[in-house]
TrEMBL record:
Residues 11-139 form the Coenzyme Q-binding protein COQ10 START domain. PANTHER family: COENZYME Q-BINDING PROTEIN COQ10 START DOMAIN-CONTAINING PROTEIN (PTHR39683:SF4), CONSERVED PROTEIN TB16.3 (PTHR39683). Signal peptide: none annotated. InterPro entries: COQ10_START (IPR005031), START-like_dom_sf (IPR023393). Pfam families: Polyketide_cyc (PF03364). This is Polyketide cyclase / dehydrase and lipid transport.
Amino acid sequence: MAEHTRSSITIEAKPAAVMGVIADFGRYPEWTGEVKEAEVLATDAAGRAEQVRLLLDAGAIKDDHTLAYTWIGDNEVQWSLVKSQMLRTLDGSYALVALDGGARTEVTYQLTVDVKIPMLGMIKRKAEKVIIDRALAGLKKRVETPAQPDAGDTGEPA
């Protein structure tokens, strides 16, 4: 069984708000840092992404890969690698748990990465930890920061 890395963070928002940001793949380039493009290739009957193409630029690692997503209820999503140029495995999940009667959310991110080039397990785990920590920090900031109106949006009704 492949080793994985896991980390959690508490976000000051309801689980539905957190999952709304996680499920909005088109906006990933705005808050993830490493994702430069995201394109939903297929959706399920509920309109949730089933396959997403991501263009990643994380310095030394640049990759164009496709992930398959499985939604488990309203508070968990899992993904696995469909195709990639550099990766052999990219499996992960976000699991959300409501805290304080639903006012806050604990988000647990689990990730397993395996690259096609040889790499020490210790270095892979460190890379997974960096990816997870950046993703959780970006997610927390995105969810907790009030949305800014579009330029030119006066806030007046049309």
